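TEACHING EXERCISE
Course module: macromolecular assemblies
Task: Read the component lines below, then compare them to the predicted structure of the full complex.
Student: A.B.
Group: 4
Components provided:
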Amino acid sequence: MMDFPLLSVLVWLPILGGVTLLVMEALGFPDIRPTALIVALATFLLSMLLYTNFDMNTASMQFQELAPWIAAFKVNYHLGVDGISMPLIILTTFTTVLVVLAGWEVIKHKIGQYMAAFLIMEGLMNGVFAALDAVLFYVFWEAMLVPMFLIIGVWGGPRRVYATIKFFLYTFLGSVFMLVALIYMHLQSGAFGILDFHRLPLGMTEQILIFLAFLMAFAVKVPMWPVHTWLPDAHVEAPTGGSVILAAIMLKIGGYGFLRFSLPITPDASHALDWLIILMSLVAVVYIGFVALVQEDMKKLIAYSSIAHMGFVTLGIFLVFTLLDNTGSTQGAALGMEGGMVQMISHGFISGALFLCVGVLYDRLHSRQISDYGGVVNTMPVFAAFMVMFALANAGLPGTSGFVGEFMVILASFKANFWFALLAATTLILGAAYSLWLVKRVIFGEIANDGVRQLEDINKREFTILASLAAVVLLFGLWPAPLIEIMHASVDNLLAHVSVSKLPHETGLVLLGAGN
Amino acid sequence: MNIALSEFAPLSTEIFVLTMACIILIVDVFLSEQHRIVSYVLSLATLLVAALISGSMLDNETAVVLNGTFVSDPMAALLKTSIFLITFGVFMYSRAYLVARGIFSGEYYVLGLFAVLGMMVLVSAHNLLTIYLGLELLSLSLYALVAFNRDSADASEAAMKYFVLGALASGMLLYGISMLYGSTGSLDIAEITTAISASDEMGIIQIFALCFIVVGLAFKFGAVPFHMWVPDVYHGAPTPVTLFIGSAPKIAAFAMALRLLEQTLGGLSADWQDMLTILAVLSLAIGNVIAIAQSNIKRMLAYSTISHVGFLLLGLIAGTDEGYSAAMFYAITYALMAIGGFGMIILLSRAGFEADRLDDFKGLNERSPWFALMMLILMFSMAGVPPTVGFYAKLSVLQAVIHVDMVWLAVTAVFFSIIGAFYYIRVIKLMYFDEPETAEPLRPSTDLQIVMSLNGLAVLGLGVFPGGLLTLCAAVLA
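Instructor-supplied answer key:
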């Protein structure tokens, strides 16, 4: 099994599939949707091999592939996954299948290019999660912008051009400074391997600067307050599939970046500046929660709720230093980080599901305004059940996956600092408020207008999409153990790594037990 | 003075191109209008054979011949090969345009070949007079080419402007060279280097000479503040000529800069690095910012050239072999992107219609998804987005700059490249998100389709596998 280049297949199969779709459309094939679905399904099934063959007892990289790529820069084609990246790859392949299905009847204009963009995107995102070489990572990271730029711009809403250019420039701005940091570290370490960077000793000033460069890239991607403003625009204007991919996966790449780059490469700077991230996260949770409450547009509401939920991810990740100081062991610190990661995966499913729900409504009435709906439950009872369930999951109802991550992070923040926990816990109120109020206004009540009266309930295709998401949300809500087990070894290893200072010995201190 | 016959071997490419240019000039006279294609095919064949000859000289030892006026080294072989291949693309792009406008005559190709010869001399110069000779041969051919469409008032104006400013710049360069001659007593590159390193203190005259030489170089590059001619000439010249001016001569200009600054005035590197830093930062800033305000794509690409020159200069500023090879890679790949960008204008144009407004790119994806994709690749490459070759060009330059601890310069460069990204993606926006203004179907000729597709795929292919060319650029300087 180890000889089979599984990760390469997961990266290149969808990309080649996408190119094939473009060729097929150019040659005038009548229906290319089945091919897109077959490619997406095949990729998803292959990605399950990652899970079945994954060794949960080791933190080292698995399924590794290594080949020289650009000799002049010592850049290698190096792929590999650990417990942090593997779940994200499966999330990507799973979501892409749903996105292909979601665009099945809705997209009329250039459907070949549409499906191709999503498949190419899938391959690139898998590449981001699997890359163990900084240049390879950066290439996938930036290349990812291209299909997304087109998806929003070509198939988006009325203000799509503004939204997509803002999206592109924002993310480009964030990432170019990361490139400078990567080159700097390459010159220090003599290689572009991410694992080499982990071992690279760096002084405090260098660490702070590199940390800030990474922060610009990842904070824009997550997105963290105050660089979140591109997200509501991009979400609102993107077609349903684009919103799903944005919310479910692209945001996670920011969180993944913190785990793969910021923490292990610049542990001392992360420690010194963790207050900044915690502050930004708490502002996102509280302030953006309130902003979500007053939205009139369903997609905007979910977009703001995404920012608030991603605040939990960054909060959980950066609580580790306070926890290490307070508890003195990596055991306690693991709670926050694992909570953040579970939250990432869970939010991927839930926000994706909510955007698909909005898509279902939008396809029928062509409006995203909350005020245009009301009493949908009367005409679409099956759909209403799903939407209520996802809204409750979004509010963190126990029994759904939304609860697990939030609960772990809040628990961890109690151990760290009472005030962190208090502020973080406001999400339980705010999240419930905006999710339930949304449901109340859209789903329940009297039938608001003729449009709603003529709604037809979801068809088999839509049912399949929503039901599979619902199953996953419940599965991980009731039995999150498999997910956490996968992460465990990698998280422990990461924590052990960040708890040791990289500073030279005379000034350095082992952070464990240093206290503050 | 006696010159052994064997000394002509390193000149075989030059001799071949010169002979062929003369032959084509004569043959063309006897061709009737419908057989004009013969000149075109002969020119293409000349470039291809020349590329093969110079390509085979890549591994040759460095040889200085003709009493030290001419050098044949691996760098020259690589640069000449690139110039031939780029010009090959230029000629292929041009034919349909010239035919449609009734100016498809042999002179275009003959002048083009003489310009190529000038570039070759420039690339292989080992004496300041050889540099000047090559430069003038190149420039005079280009002046004539700009004025080639004699019925166009814009083109005549552009040619006049180009000629006057170009002559001024040549004068500056020549003045600098004369001062250098006065202070060192030689025009030979090697002898000047020895003389400069032998003198302990730098004479003020050498600094003056350096200033004038840098001005001359900056003009040829089109670096701010010596860039004023670039937008006007790019705009006024017939598109196939813009295509030519904007591509291969940048490679030659790089060679000239390397021969003059690094090989001749290496002893004064601290001084010219400071000068180039100012030029580079200004070019990056002005080029990228002003490009945003353009509605004509030729002018936009002209300002884009200026900003790319700024990036290229960064490699020279680094002043290391790493930096020079990065700048070389940048020059070659930029030329490849530039012919694609201007080539697309030709592809969209037809008789009586110049597709040189940005709005002419509206809805290209509706009219031709394939060529829209090619332009998408080219634009993202110019913006430096992977996986296109433009990204590696920027990466290698940034790496060289950071390596000499000029992180601030790298940060400035990437900052302006974000601004630059805006006007490139605006072209993509027009092609993909807007409705076409005309329903006129695209009917590019076969050679145009082939060269456009090859061009776009080369930019993508070199982006996925940049290793070979990067290694080659580093190897020829070693």
